[in-house]
Amino acid sequence: MKAVIQRVSRASVSVDGQVTGQIGRGLLLFLGVAQGDEDGDLKKLLRKVIGLRIFDDDQGKTNLSLQDVDGELLVVSQFTLLADCKKGRRPSFVKAGDPARAQEMYEAFIRESRQMVRRVQHGVFGAVMEVELCNDGPFTIVLDSRDL
To answer: What CA–CA distance (Å, rounded) separates 92 from 99?
Structure first.
């Protein structure tokens, strides 16, 4: 699984002009499921995301996690994180997971997140979405479950 995590002061996702999820202070997480990803990948990635100490403490040091600040989480599926751009100019997406399996894992990620985070919102798997955010920092991190 691959994820792009952005620390935000607010973020929202819409489908056909209708907001499907929005958060205040927290993390916007774009999630891509790769071929061969398993439940272990999901759990590793989720633990890392929730535990990342990327929020400022009272001294202004990035020392607090999402849970420490009672932050919110917005999860958006994004298979394009698995793009392979080695050949030519058109990205290949053959490394992206099977859509049915990817949707299962995306939904499982959201369910598991709700066990650890007070407020979890999300986009619509497979839909064309518009994402709006106010990146706080800016602060952006890219994670791959296979590197954790």
So the answer is: 15
78 is catalytic: yes
Whether 121 is catalytic: no
CA-CA-CA-CA dihedral for 1, 28, 115, 146, to nearest 10 = 20
Provide the pLDDT confidence category of residue 58 given band limits of 50, 70 and 90: very high
Q: What domains, with CATH codes, occur in the chain?
A: 2-147 (3.50.80.10)
Judge whether 79 counts as a catalytic residue. yes
Alpha-carbon distance of 94 to 103, in angstroms, equals 16
> Which residue in the list 62, 67, 80, 140 is annotated as catalytic?
80
Read off the pLDDT of residues 66-84 as tens digits, 9 standing for 90 and up. Answer: 999 999 999 999 999 999 9
- Looking at residue 102, its pLDDT comes to 96
- Selecting among 78, 109, 121, 125, the annotated active-site residue is 78
Question: Which of 79, 109, 121, 125 is an active site residue?
Answer: 79
pLDDT of residue 26: 98
